[in-house]
Amino acid sequence: FLGVMPAYSAADDALTTKLVTFYEHKKDSSVPSHQATVLLFDPRNGSLKAVLDGSVITAKRTAAVSAIATKLLMPAFAEVLCILGAGVQAYSHYDIFTELFTFKEVRIWNRTKEKAVKFANSVNGPVQVCSSAQEAVTGADVIVTVTMATTPILFGDWVKPGAHINAVGASRPDWRELDDELMKNSVLFVDSREAALTESGDVILSGAEIFAELGEVVKGTKPALPEKTTVFKSLGMAVEDTVAAKFVYDSWSAGN
């Protein structure tokens, strides 16, 4: 796939387009599945101001949004973090989650165990490598799914009541990471209703009802309900890249 994600933010005085290629590699490849570039324009006249590494921006802004959702939706006493997947997003989520939150235990599972072991050996803190997704998930308070799965790998009967799930993978209308039981028995939050109802297989195929957009919780127009089992379905929005790219550009400009 080649995706084009244009956005303009009046508040940030920023105009960008992200170009992202997405290739499903049949075999483990040294080339990432997602590669991206962000073009930053001058909103006054349309001239190109900068070309930015969209892969780094995508990894960091996606994890940052998951962290906002987690801060609002996770249970009051969250001790165990579980990450399903060991790719780029697993690293960016681990970095920000261990920086912002205090977990007593971090677990990881990946379809290819060698990648999970490599992940555990390369991050700064202790990580338990699990032999199955069920083992990783059982008793976890916060779960992050960042996989290339096309059928469910996380099942509702494994999930601790009151846990919070950030569902980041399965960005196509016919792909799943979460099963029907989990989707229907959780309070569902999304970044964009419009996107979720056209792009997310987890939402479309389960028929789960969307409770709120994350922005509504941030603004205080919808409650967070951290005492419930919650799912945040993250698809990403172009404006997140715009804000992040402007932030990077402004920081670079100040350094120059």
Automatic annotation (TrEMBL):
One Gene Ontology biological process: thyroid hormone metabolic process
Domain of life: Eukaryota
Any GO molecular function: pyrroline-2-carboxylate reductase activity
Catalyzed reactions per annotation: L-proline + NAD(+) = 1-pyrroline-2-carboxylate + NADH + H(+); (3R)-1,4-thiomorpholine-3-carboxylate + NADP(+) = 3,4-dehydrothiomorpholine-3-carboxylate + NADPH + 2 H(+); L-pipecolate + NAD(+) = Delta(1)-piperideine-2-carboxylate + NADH + H(+); (S)-cystathionine ketimine + NADPH + 2 H(+) = (3R,5S)-2,3,5,6,7-pentahydro-1,4-thiazepine-3,5-dicarboxylate + NADP(+)
Transmembrane segments: none
InterPro entries: NAD(P)-bd_dom_sf, ODC_Mu_crystall, ODC_N
Pfam family of the protein (one): OCD_Mu_crystall
Family (UniProt): Belongs to the ornithine cyclodeaminase/mu-crystallin family.
Assembly and interaction partners: Homodimer. Binds the thyroid hormone triiodothyronine (T3); T3 binding inhibits enzymatic activity.
Name used for this protein in its record: Ketimine reductase mu-crystallin
Species annotation: Gavia stellata (Red-throated diver)
